[in-house]
Amino acid sequence: MTASNRGRARPRTAGSARRTYAAGTRSAAARRGNGGHRSRFSAVRMLLVAVLLVAGGKLVQVQWFEAGALSAAAERQRTQTIDIPAQRGSIVDRNGAKLAFSVEVRSLAVNLKALRKNMDDLKAKNPATKRTFDTETAEAAKYIAAKVPSQLTEQQLLDLLRKPASFTYLEHDVEPSVATDIQKHFTWISIEKRAKREYPGGSLAANIVGAANWRSDDPDVSKHNLHGLVGLELMRDNDLAGTPGRMLVNTKNGSDNVVIPGTERDLQAAVPGSDLELTIDSDLQYEVQRQLSDYVQQTHAKGGQAVVLDAKTGEVYALANDKTFDPNDQSTWTTDDMADPAVTTPFEPGSVNKVVTATGAIDSGIATPESTMQVPGSLQVADRTVHDAWNHGTQTFTTTGIFAKSSNVGTLLLAQKLGAEHYSNLLKLFGLGQRTGVGLPGESAGSVPARSQWSASTFGNLPIGQGLSMTILQMAGMYQAIANDGLRVEPRIVKAKVNPDGVTVPEPAPKAVRVVSPQTAKTVRDMMRSVTQKGKGQQSGTAPSAAVEGYQISGKTGTGQQVDPRTKAYSDHLYNITFAGILPADHPRFVVGIRLDAPDTTLPAGHNAAPLFHSIASYLTQRFQIPLSDGPSPQVPLVIQ
Asked: Where are the membrane-spanning stretches (predicted)?
C-alpha cells in the first residue's frame, strides 16, 4: 500500500458494518445493564440508610427523651410500697410493771395465682419434672407446721394453700428468724413485718387495759396495724398507736407480692407510739380481782365491782369486776366479760348514800354527833311509809347512832331539817349525776332526778339511797371527799404519757371540788367509825366484821332494792349490797368501795360486804406498810336506853 492510499479511508463492507453494529449494540447493552445494577444497589443502600436512620432516631428517642418514663414504668412493674408498722406504746402500772407491750413478728403470705402460674410454666418447660403445685404446697405445709407447731396444723395449712383464691395468709405471729428460714426454703412465700400485742398478766386489769388486735375489716392488707378494741387500748389509741412508716421493695415478677430479700429501702421511718403510765398497782389489782371473784361466788351474786382510791389524790389503785377476760386469747372473748361495769353500769346504792345527809347535818349545825333524836319505827312520806330494817318502837338515837345503825327513819328526819335545796346542792358537790372523767371508755354519769322534777316521795327516797344511781367510782368518790378533809378530787387512772423521745408528760391535773370544810369532814369521818363498832346490846354498828385490828376504820354499809325486771317495781329479794370504807380513819390513806349485784341474802355473807372490805383492807395495810392507828376507835353510845 502506497502512502497516498494509507491516507484515504478504506471502504467498509457489509460484513464489517454488521460486526461494527453488533459490537456497538453489545457495548450499549452492557452499559445499560451495569447502570441497572447500580440503581438497584443504590436503592437498597438508601433503604438501609433510612432504616438505620429510623432505628437511630428511635434509639435516641428511647435513650434520651423517653428514658426516664420507661425506667419509671419498669420500676413500677417490679416495686411496691408497703407500710412499716409503728411500734405500739406499752402500758405499765405505777411501778413500771408492764401490763401490755408489743413484740415484732412476721406474717407469711402467698400469691396463689402467681404460684400456680409458675408451677405450670415449669411443667411446660420440663415435662419430666416432679415439682408440681401439689407437691410444692404439700412440702411447704409440712415444713411450716413443723416450724410453727403451736399454730395451724399441716392439713389446715394445706387447705389454705390449695383454696380457690388468688392470695392467702398462712400464719401471723411467727418469730422473725423462723419466718426467714421458711422463706429460704420456699422463696414464693412472702413475709410481712407485724407486731404482736402481749399481755403478760393475762386477765390482770384486762377490763382497764383492754385489748388491741389487727383490724380484720381492712381491705388493704399492706396497711394492717394494731388498733385498740376496748379499754385504754381503745380510749388512748391515738397515743399508743404511733405513725406507720413506708418502705419500697422489689418483688419477683413485678406483681406477685413476693419481696426480694435485701431490696427493702425506707421512704419514711415509722414513729413509735407513746407509753402510758397508770395509777394501778398490779399486785393490789390482782388481789382485789381474786378476792372479789371469790366473794361473788361465795354469796351467789350475779356480779360485783370493787375500787381502791388514794384518799388524797383520787388515783385509782385498783378497779375490778368479778368477770374479766384474757386479752391474749381472742377465742375466749365474750361481750359480757370484756365490759367494764365498774364505770359503765350505775346502780341504786342504798344506805351508803346516807353520808350526804350526815355531812349536811353536821355542816349546817342542825346536829352534832352526840345530839339525840326520837326516832319512830316508821315514817309516812307522802304516799308511802318508810320503815327501818328492824322492827322497833320510838327510840332515842344519837346522830352517830342513826348512821351507825343505818336508820332510814332517823336519816329522813335529819334530811327534812336540812331541806331539799341544801340536799340537792350537796348531791352536786359530791359529784353525783356527773361523769368522774376517770379516763375509761363508756363511763356513765349515773342518774339524779332534776330538782324541778322532785315530788314529796322523791325526797323520801334519795336520802336513803333509792331513786338515784351511781357507779362504784362515784360512790367511792363521795367517801374520798370525806377522807380528804372535804376536798373531792376526781379519780384518774392514767398518770402520765411517755413520748418516744423519753419525755414524760403528766396528765392534766384532775378537778378538785370543795364539798365541806375540813372540820366537818373530820367530824363525819370520826362519826362513821361507829359503823364498825362492836358493843353490847344495841350499841353495835352494822359492820363490826369490817374492822381491822390495830386500825381505825370509817365506813358505811348499804342495801339498795333493785327493780324487778318482771314487775318493774322494787323487788323484795333483789338487792345491791354495798360498802364504802376509809383506811385508816385517823390518817386516811385509802378509800375502798364495794358493790355486790343481787347476792343471796339468805346466806351468812350475802347481806353484807363488810367481810370483803376487811380482807381487802388487811391486804392494803401489809402491801403498803400502813402505820398502825394512834389508838382504837372510841366506844360511843348509839341508842339511849
From this structure: 41-60
